[in-house]
Structure formats: C-alpha cells, structure tokens
Design brief:
By secondary structure, the chain is mostly helical. 60% of the residues lie in helices and 11% in strands. It starts with 5 loop residues before the first helix and ends in an 8-residue tail after the last helix.
C-alpha cells in the first residue's frame, strides 16, 4: 500500500475522517479497540457490538483486537447501509450473500473487502439483492423528496430576503 496513488490516498483519508486517522490506521501494527472507536468518533461499546454482529473483522494479536484501514471500510459501509434504512441483520446477510466483509463508497472510490468462503445460494442472493435495491431506491426517493422540499424552502427564504432588503428607490 505504500505505492498508493495520491488521489486514492486522499479519498481514503476522507473516508477515515482525516489524514491523521488515515495514518494511524495505515500503520501495520494497527490500533486497539478503544483507539479505533475514538478515531471513528464512536463509543467502544458500539465497536464491540459490531464485532459481536460479525460486521467488523480486525486482526487478533496476542488475544487483542488490532484495527487497520480495511476495518474503516467495514465500519463506514455499515454506517452507509444503516443510513439507507437497513438493519444490522440485513447488512450482514447482504454482505455474506455477496461474499464481502465490507463495502463502502467515498466520492469516486468504492472499497470492497472480499470473503474467501463457500458460495451463497443463488436464490437467496437474488432475494437479498432485491431487498437491498428496494431499500436503496426508497432512500433515493426520500432524499429526492427532501431535496425538493429544501429547494422550495430556499426559494421562499430568498424571496423573503429580497422583500426585506433595503431598496435604492425608497421614498425620502
């Protein structure tokens, strides 16, 4: 990873939450659970919960978890899926169905972490994809509706500001 293109490095730094977080997790020694949680702006209990849910897969060194850059992609992916309305169970089922440990997007960069286990049942996978696609489409529709509402509110605010602004043709 030392020959990573600068643009990709910058996008990963944004995904991590900043260059200092990126550098801390780029170190091959990794960071412990408390430090990882702090770097991600989460309580350690949330990180432990995601570990129990099999949604984070850090290294184990001498019985202790060590988190690295790929764990950021796992975490950010879970957060992105949850923001679209998926439950942790649905996220896990989808990722397992796709043979993925994690999937996250930041700008033009998509990070995928692949499993190397058995292949999923094709019918189950198709059903999972359909479920996730429905949720993503619903999230898009909701966001478009919010955008339309915000656009109307912005237009109303601009019209009000224009009406309240002092004019040059005011009587003296």
């Amino acid at each position: 990873m030392t020959t990573m293109p600068a643009e990709q490095r910058e996008q990963l730094a944004v995904m991590c939450g900043g260059p200092e977080v990126f550098e801390a997790l780029f170190d091959l020694r990794g960071v412990g659970i408390g430090r990882f949680a702090a770097l991600m702006g989460l309580p350690a209990t949330t990180v432990r919960h995601l570990l129990r849910e099999d949604l984070l897969h850090p290294m184990r060194v001498n019985g202790k978890f060590r988190f690295l850059l790929p764990n950021v992609a796992e975490l950010r992916g879970v957060q992105q899926w949850q923001a679209l309305g998926l439950t942790l169970e649905e996220v896990r089922a989808f990722l397992q169905g796709q043979q993925l440990l994690g999937l996250a997007s930041q700008g033009g960069l998509t990070v995928t972490l692949h499993r190397t286990e058995e292949h999923p049942d094709a019918e189950q996978l198709a059903q999972l994809k359909a479920t996730v696609l429905t949720r993503v489409q619903a999230a898009i529709a909701g966001l478009e509706q919010k955008q339309a509402t915000l656009t109307r509110q912005l237009e109303q605010a601009r019209a009000l500001a224009a009406a309240l602004a002092p004019s040059d043709s005011a009587p003296t």
